[in-house]
Design goal:
By secondary structure, this protein is mainly α. It has four helices and two strands; from the N terminus they run H-E-H-H-E-H.
């Protein structure tokens, strides 16, 4: 029954997933775990979100809301608004 509720919620356009693990992100973006660490660098205009739970030897956990917002904003290629004033 629980799977049916999740499928219905997803079909209704609601986000069911509240977090991603490093493994989830590796699959989603087709990148290695090390890549996400590099993407968190402040040298980027829109750095990748930091994990909400980090641990050595296990998957980090990232907020799905933060990762999805980062992706929607254009990821690393996001345009940074600048003021000409």
């Amino acid at each position: 029954m629980g799977a049916q509720i999740n499928q219905q919620s997803a079909a209704a356009g609601q986000t069911v997933q509240s977090s991603y693990t490093t493994t989830d992100l590796c699959i989603k973006f087709k990148r290695t775990a090390r890549t996400f660490l590099r993407w968190q660098s402040e040298k980027w205009p829109n750095p990748f979100p930091k994990p909400i739970s980090a641990s050595k030897g296990a998957d980090n956990v990232y907020s799905a809301k933060a990762v999805d917002a980062w992706e929607a904003a254009g990821g690393l290629n996001a345009q940074v608004a600048t003021s000409n004033e």
